[in-house]
Design goal:
The structure is a homodimer of 418-residue chains. Chain A contains 14 helices and 15 strands. Chain A has 418 residues and is α/β, with parallel strands linked by helices. Chain A folds into 2 domains: 301 residues, Aminopeptidase (3-Layer(aba) Sandwich), CATH 3.40.630.10; 110 residues, Alpha-Beta Plaits.
């Protein structure tokens, strides 16, 4: 039915509409918009429910079928010529950081819609069906850790573990999830973990490399590993004016010594060491802190380096606890991974066929593709973003870069769907 | 009318009822009781309103008149023989730290009730009227800084400055105050700053000195000075996995360097350096902190040492800000002060007359008496507390120590009322 491949890819790419793509991104970005031009659209909130409705409206207008599952992932299906085959899937997430941008996650979802629109406009019908997936709670800002949708789908984490997670207000994932699912009673649920032929996620790079090389398409080679910890330091509260210094068990000062000692130890090339969450109790000016609780996020492209450094976290915390006690919990470990060469080659071949410059790049950030990698052949395509800035309201992209990545995504998906 | 003084003081002291005093402390401690046997009774909350009602009930049962003022201080008046004279006032506060104890503040108020009860029981009627004051928001846990009642009363801070202060939820002092005042529509308001003949505050020491000396009555010589700051560090948020370390503006790491550098600089004898409040934004695990906000509480018995060290705060913060910016604000400065010798001598003479061992002691904590000192002749009497522990749910006292302090308070107030 379809034209010879080489012609077909260019033809589809010609129907990728930069204005439509950008317009949809801006429309989605209005939902949860912050006053500083960013987005706050946390998982399972009313804002995220509104965003889901917008996607559903787009899908219905395009004649796509809509599905969900027990963890409230969304799937938008473009039927192929062979609908008994496992689908080729693209997509990303629509939740954001509290002070996030309009592109992180959103681009991968909107690009999926643009790919299908371009295929429809060009008259291209894939062999295997093509689906856009929207994975729940990639960011993990409200319910932590994130990647809940892709981890539940791929059984990398059990529903039991996920459902009991609470947000800062004590709301359980289970209850917030029920509310979201109840908002869309007409959407059919499919089982978690159904077979997928291939998964390709388009995403912004969130780093400075593509921009520095002035290349608009990054063929992602793999994802750097990460180790995540929670540290609880317990001292003893007391009066700020009366308790003599030698008798103090100051949980803040102990935590500071730990964080600083790790900072010096982890000062090796390419290591990223972040303490993003830091909480003090009772957190009043005239009381010596009795408890501190903080996160550690450690990432390095080389798994052995990351492993060796991460193994030091507990020792460094113990060595610097002073008169306090400390508990270190590693809550998530992700080894560095490499996407299959055939997927990477398929993406770069599609780019070459369409005539778009591309380069290999390692992902420094984690993505839902990390989980899908253990479920089916998986790959990713990156777009540059301004200054490499992400997880920030200033996050921005060049519309033509996004369109070029969408062309390559369309080409790769067309090839992979057979 | 009254018996010769020497006999009178002993007679009054004989009517101080340890069980009644302790019982009232325990009854007051039930309001806002925490599960760990402490008290959380923040200023201008429903809990504090309940506590006010309890005091009013006691006062009415004892035939005392009740007054309030524009800042919702409470006054319970025991008429004297010369009611046109300025009153002799005792009292303290009933608000607590979020994880506070049953004695800090509460003891000074309950001791006032016990003194009047003992006077009534012994048939003693003072010349000048005697009043119990309950000063609003000494702790400053909810609305910071504290000492609002005594500062407004003595015009050490203007009502305009106080009313705009907001709590962590954005509630203004003005609105919370209006709610508290509206809860007691029948209580007469008196002007702020009316003349006071003498103010004596009984309080727990909140330090280990009296306990170490096994002396139950401390005659307070003065209050160590304090300097309080708020520091805001502004960096830039970014993705924890992608932003290379050299490009980061991590507001948490900068704050940590500041706090640690100050800790080393302020490591001099008798210095107390506390960072009790510490807040990070956006405070999520995978975002580099863009902002930190923290408190500094610095105290030293010697004003010159405190002045010199406090003057270094801004420089040390500037020197350690790294790629971030920093703003340092000194929100409160209290010079070390010495109570008038005639008040101290009156207290120790009363103790001697009653036959209770006593010793001079410097207050390491700030108290409402600090403000009253600038309004009228002022003094303080301390009781030991277990292990010197305070601002802590484990705060505890010996009932007989509290009774002995109350006897001395009764004796001193009897002498001072003429």
């Amino acid at each position: 039915m379809s034209a010879p491949k080489e012609i077909s890819l260019k033809k589809i790419a010609n129907h990728v509409d930069e204005k439509r793509l950008w317009g949809r991104l801006m429309d989605l970005g209005k939902i949860g918009a912050t006053k500083n031009d960013g987005v706050c659209r946390l998982a399972l909130t009313d804002e995220e429910i509104k965003a889901r409705q917008l996607l559903i409206d787009w899908a219905k207008a395009m004649g796509l079928s809509v599905y969900t599952d027990a963890i409230s992932n969304l799937f938008f299906r473009y039927e192929g010529l062979k609908n008994d085959e496992a689908p080729v899937v693209t997509g990303s997430h629509i939740d954001s950081q509290p002070t996030g941008g309009k592109f992180d996650g959103a681009f991968g979802v909107v690009a999926g819609f643009e790919v299908i629109a371009a295929m429809q406009d060009s008259g291209f019908r894939p062999q295997a069906p093509l689906e856009i997936a929207v994975w729940l709670n990639e960011e993990g800002s409200r319910f932590s850790p994130g990647m809940m949708g892709s981890e539940a789908f791929t059984s990398r984490r059990s529903m039991e573990q996920i459902l009991v997670v609470e947000d800062a207000d004590g709301v359980k994932t289970e209850d917030a999830l029920a509310q979201t699912l109840a908002s869309f009673p007409d959407i059919k649920q499919r089982p978690l973990g159904f077979p997928i032929k291939t998964f390709i996620e388009a995403h912004i790079e969130q780093g400075p490399i593509l921009e520095a090389h002035a290349v608009s398409v990054g063929v992602v080679t793999g994802i750097q590993g990460s180790r995540r910890y929670r540290v609880k330091v317990v001292g003893e509260d007391g009066h700020a004016g009366t308790l003599p210094t030698p008798q103090r068990k100051d949980a803040l000062f102990a935590a500071i010594e730990m964080i600083r000692a790790m900072r010096h130890k982890f000062d090796v090339e390419d290591m990223k060491y972040t303490v993003g969450l830091f909480e003090v109790s009772p957190n009043v000016p005239s009381v010596i802190p009795s408890t501190t609780f903080f996160s550690i996020d450690l990432r390095h492209p080389d798994w052995q380096t990351l492993k060796d450094m991460g193994d030091l976290v507990m020792t460094i915390c113990e060595q610097n606890k002073g008169p306090c006690t400390v508990t270190v919990t590693e809550i998530a470990t992700s080894e560095s991974l490499e996407f299959p060469s055939e997927i990477r080659e398929c993406i770069s071949a599609a780019a070459d066929e369409i005539g778009i410059a591309n380069m290999p790049i390692l992902s420094m950030a984690g993505h839902d593709a990390r989980q899908l990698h253990y479920h089916c052949p998986t790959g990713m395509i990156f777009s540059p973003c301004d200054g490499g800035i992400s997880h920030n309201e200033m996050e921005n992209c060049n519309p033509s870069d996004l369109a070029e990545v969408t062309c390559v995504l369309a080409g790769a998906l067309a090839k992979l769907s057979g």
